Every structure is written in C-alpha cells, then in structure tokens.
User: Fold this.
Amino acid sequence: MTEKAYQAVYQSWVEAPEAFWREQAQLIDWSRPPEKIFETNDTGDRWYVDGEMNTCHNCVDRHVEAGHGDRTALIYDSPMTDSKQTISYADLLERVECVAGMMQAHGVEKGDRVIIYMPMIAETAIAALACARLGAVHSIVFGGFAAAELATRIDDARPKMILAASCGLEPGRVVAYKPLIDGAIALASHKPEHVIMLQRPQETAPLDQPYDADWQTSEDKARADNLRPACVPVKATDPLYILYTSGTTGIPKGVVRDNGGHLVALSWAMHNVYNIAAGEVFWSASDFGWVVGHSFILYGPLAIGATSVIYEGKPVGTPDAGAFWRVISEHGVKALFTAPTAFRAIKKQDPDAKLVADYDLSCLKTLYLAGERVDPDTINWAEGHLNIPVIDNWWQTETGWPICGNPVGIETLPIKKGSPALPMPGYHVDIVDDENQPVAAGETGAIVIKLPLPPGCLPSLWENEDGFKQAYLTDYPGYYKTGDAGFLDEDGYLYVMSRTDDIINVAGHRLSTGGMEEVLAAHKDIAECAVLGVKDALKGEIPIGLLVLNDGVNRDQQEIIGEAVQLVRDQIGPVAAFKIAIRVARLPKTRSGKILRGTIRKIANGEAWSVPATIDDPAILDEIRAELVTIGYPKGDV
Ligand code: COA
Ligand code: AMP
Assistant:
C-alpha cells in the first residue's frame, strides 16, 4: 500500500480526526484561521468554531488575487437558447461585485435571507456568490416546483429579497416564473421586500408589483455608482445557505449549510474524490436547485479554481442523445458527474452509443454517478462505450458531499458494481438493526453515521433544532440516521438498497410520497389515498396513487383521476412526475390502521410478497392486485 493510498488517509482521520481536519482547513483562505477545530456546544457539533472567512472570497477573489483572473471559471452552454458564454474568474468577480452592490442597494445585509428562483444560467451562480459575499443566506428553489412549494419556502426562510429570472426553458415549453412568484408571495404570510427580475428574451415578465425591480437596470446602477462591496468576513459556523429537501411530510426540511466546514469539505472532495485540480474542467450535469448543483456546479469547482460547466439542456432531445458527448468534447471536460437516469435516457435513445463516435472524448477520464442507486446495467453500458471508470458515490442533501465513494484522487479502489465503495474520511458508517445494534456483514439494516458528522454536513435545520434532532438523531442514539437501508460486505463496501421512509427518488429527484398524499387528500371526492414509488426503467422510480373515493361519488372516475394528477402538478410541481393514479375500493391496512404501502409496492413491482401477519383484511390485497393489472402493473421490463 502506498503512502497516499486510501487506507492510509482514512486511518489518519480515524486516529486523529481533529488533526486531519486542521490540516484540511489549509485548503481555503481564512481571515481568521481557526484555532478550535471542533466543539460540541449547546447548539450541537460545530467545526472551526472560532474561524472566520468568506466563501465568495475563496471561490472568486483569491483566484484573481493569485494572478489567475484569466482562467475560465464558468462555461455556460445552452442548447435551449443556442448560446454559449465563457466567464473568466476576473469577469466573474466583476459581475459578483456589482450584483452584491445591487442587493446591498436594496437593503440586503449579512444574515438576511435571499431566495433564488432561477434556471441553469450563469446569473444563478453569480446571485449565490453575491449572497455569500455579503454574508447573506441564500436559498435556491428548483424551477420545477409549483407556487405552493415556493410559498412554503418563503414562509420558512422569510427572505428579504427574491432574485429571479423571467423564465426557465423546458423542451417545447417556456416556464414563466413571474406568475409562480407572484402566486407564491400571495399565498405566503411573509412578504419579501423586493423581487429583482432578470429578463430573459424568451419571455419577459411584467414588472407590475410594488416589490418588482429590474435586474439589469439595478446591476448597471450599482456598476455606475461603483457600489462593489468587499467580502464580509463571516464565522465558519454562520449559515451560507438553506436548501429545502423532501422529508416524510409535505413540509420540506430546511437543510442549513455553514461556510467554513462546507468549503473545506468540498475542496477536499474535489481533489480527492473527483480528482480535479485548478484549471481543469468539471461538469456536473445537474441543476442549481439540487445539492449536487450547490456542491459541484457552484462551490466545489470554484473553491479550487477549476472550471465548471453550467448546462441548460437535457441529456436527450437537445437536440439528441449525443448532447453530453458534444459538451464534453467541446469544453474539454475531465470528469462528468450526473445521475444514472440521464444515462438511462441516453441509452434508451442510442442503445449502441453510435453518437459517441462523432466526438473526441479523450479528455474525459472519469464518470461519476450519484443521486439514486446506480444499477449495474447502466454502469456496464457507460463503461463499455466510454472506456473509462464509472464511479458511484453516495450522499445526500444533508451531508453536502460524498459519504461513500471511490477516491480517485487518492487511488482508484477496485470497483464493485452496485456499491459506492468505502466511507470517506470523516464518516464512520454502520449498519444497525431496530435495537441500534450493528449487524453482521451482508445483513441489511439501517445505514447510520457515527456522530459527530464531519465538516460540511448540516449542523441543523433552519430555525428548527427540535425537528433536526427528531428527524436525524433520535432513532439511533449516537448516530445520524441517513434514512437509507443497505448492507456492508466483507470488504466494508456499502450497498445502498432502499429508503426506510416514504421518500422516493424520481429521476434523481428526491420526493415525499407523504407530501403527495397530503395534496390528494385535499380533493373533495377523495376519502383516502396512498402514494408509493414503483420501479421505472427510465426514472428509477415513479409515484403512483391509489385513491379511495367518498361514498356516493358517482362522477366519471377518469375525470377525478385527471384532477388528482393536475392537483399534484399545481401544488408540488411537474418535477413530481405524478401521472398515474387508480381508483380502489379500499386500502390494505394493519389492524392498527397503518396503510401497507410496502406490500402494495412489492405487488406493483412484481416482487415476492407475503400477506403481513398484522393485516386487517387479506382480501384487499387481491383487489389491489387486480386493479394494478388494469394499468399494466407489474411491468415485465424493469
Ligand atoms: N423547471 C420547470 N419544469 C421542470 C424543470 C424545471 N427546472 N425540470 C423539470 N421540469 C419538468 C419537466 O419539463 C417535466 O414536465 P412534463 O411533465 O410536462 O414533461 C417534469 O418536470 C419532469 O421532469 P424530468 O424529471 O426532468 O423528466 P423528463 O421526462 O423531462 O426527462 C430525464 C427525463 C431523464 C431526461 C431527466 O430527468 C434528466 O435529465 N435527468 C437528469 C438527472 C438529474 O439532473 N438529476 C438531478 C440530481 S443529480
Ligand atoms: P438528495 O438529498 O436529493 O441528494 O437524495 C439523497 C438520497 O438519494 C439518498 O439518501 C439515497 O436514498 C439516494 N442516493 C443518492 N446517491 C445514491 C447512490 N449513489 N446510491 C444509492 N442511493 C443514492
């Protein structure tokens, strides 16, 4: 084993965790270097408690100050608008300064929250960095969510300002953001003072509300007034952003990310997991609205002075299944990070990968997949056609960076398909049973992480300490509950098999079936319902709804189903991909009244199932099976 090998690095963390993270702290610049590396205080576990720094300084200013202003920071590539733009670190600094000036002129100060509701354009990165510059706390909301979801986030984060673009672009559809924003503000109890709107030519927004301001005019004014605020030093433990993610109910959880530990962890991961150095091109084909976008389109690559690609397009249809290969070859991408579903989409359209031959992909050294379970089929296809290692990595919004992975920057460990390999330093992963006892290798149980969590992981939920403890720390004392289930093999490789809660993963997007049920239950004709995730060949999982109608309802049931589908689209958003629902006479329950979602899911997936001992009336399962058959479940091809 070489000195640099994974085991040696992991062991150095095990033996002296604080010394390990003290050393990694040198990856970033501090205005006040931390003396206290770790502390458990009455608010929980905190990293670099007395350190001060600024995330924007680290991601932008310091690279320019070091003489790398000419280096490319961002490449915007948009088949949706047929345009491309290259932004150097010097250009980025200029834009970020003026946008921070624009925000300051509208009253944004350190600690204020700012919601960013913007698509995959460079200004979204600029907006987030400008917030970081001022010490303001951003919360990026994914464009595929509906007004009601945005309203929930407005009420929870209570932003002073919303930074928005006039529209997002989906194939064949312009998504106007202004009606969604106005609708959300009307629904929310909290009213932001300003909405600053970046007008896109594809659809401009009427600026007709008292809170509306035009982005370009405001940014130009800040430029003309030379309003270019310097980076505001913040405590390492101050919040950088809030990212809402699905929990088991309709109320999303506001995952808080701090400044110092976050940037240290991301810098470590960029070098050691993703094997990227300053000046190299990294492409994370995700969206700013997800954690992958936060960590590996925005902060990670910029923290280390690399080049990050912002792609406004899809893996297929913009214009074809060769889109990814074009971007890689055109921009010299060294590593691509995306969700397996993107590759399944490409494989479906171009099964023999004929389009690969049209491009020179010699620059591409590694493919990283995450966001959902990486199926061996997808790995085989990608490996076979790209001829590079395909690396699974497992993590979640809460952790912000890989829990388990294959640290190519240290050494490429043997790849076992279906496993994201081994824990990264900072993470001690165990599999436990319901009594919180570790289980033997090969046995499935809850995947938990020994406390404390490493730098970068959530210190809490936004203004909801009790909710944080309840959701993550209570069920398995001494551990953080990931909500995933799986097993470790004899070599310590992790296999993540499923969730232990009602969260489903649709095309790499994390969604709450409980949230969908809450929306459906509000329909006047629906007495009760169950939503569960079933296997899907493209998206991994998709939700289906089982609806029990009120007695006496004799309207056309297809009409009611259509309304139910529309309700979820309107209340949660198109991203929920809720398109299938059936009427059932009754739902199978335990004698204590709990709906047997797990059993229904197994029936729908065509998996082996047995009648649970606690079931109230076993005949209902046969009724459900018969109803599922009418809509083609179980499917044979997944
Ligand atoms: N704004 C508005 N609507 C959006 C949106 C956005 N930012 N992103 C997606 N939507 C809409 C889509 O238009 C679609 O609407 P429709 O029901 O009218 O067709 C719906 O939400 C579902 O979108 P999506 O999950 O993207 O499915 P799709 O069928 O359009 O495309 C894939 C399928 C596989 C091509 C697509 O999911 C994909 O590119 N996945 C990559 C994975 C990824 O980026 N994961 C992020 C985590 S790493
Ligand atoms: P999110 O917080 O949206 O990133 O979703 C995180 C969840 O996605 C995890 O808890 C897992 O359930 C799932 N997930 C992410 N990456 C992987 C992976 N590599 N393998 C299996 N599941 C994954």
Observations:
- The domain at 5-313+393-485 is CATH 3.40.50.12780 (Rossmann fold).
